[in-house]
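Hi F.,

I've been meaning to write this up properly since the lab meeting, where we talked about keeping a consistent format for the predictions we share between groups. The idea is simple: the sequence comes first, exactly as it goes in, then the C-alpha cells exactly as they come out, then a line or two of notes. No screenshots and no reformatting. I'm using this chain as the first example so we have something concrete to point to.
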Amino acid sequence: MPIIVNLDVMMARRKMSLNELSEKVGITLSNLSILKTGKAKAIRFSTLDTICKVLDCQPADILEYSKG
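Output, unedited:
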C-alpha cells in the first residue's frame, strides 16, 4: 500500500509510549498497534484528529503517500 504510517516516529519524537497514547486518545492498545504497524485499512477522522492533538502534530506528520 502506498500509504506509510509514521506514528512510531511521532511517538518517539514526543517520548510517548503506545500505552500512554492509547489512554490519551481513547483507543484500544490493539487497534493503536494495528495502526502503528501500518496494517490498518482505514482510520476515522475523529481518531486522527485526537491523535494529532495529543501528539501536537499535523496529519501529514503521521501519514505519508509514497508513489513507489
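Notes:
DSSP finds five helices and two strands in the chain.
The CA atoms of residues 42 and 54 lie 20 Å apart.

If this format works for you, I'll send the rest the same way.

G.
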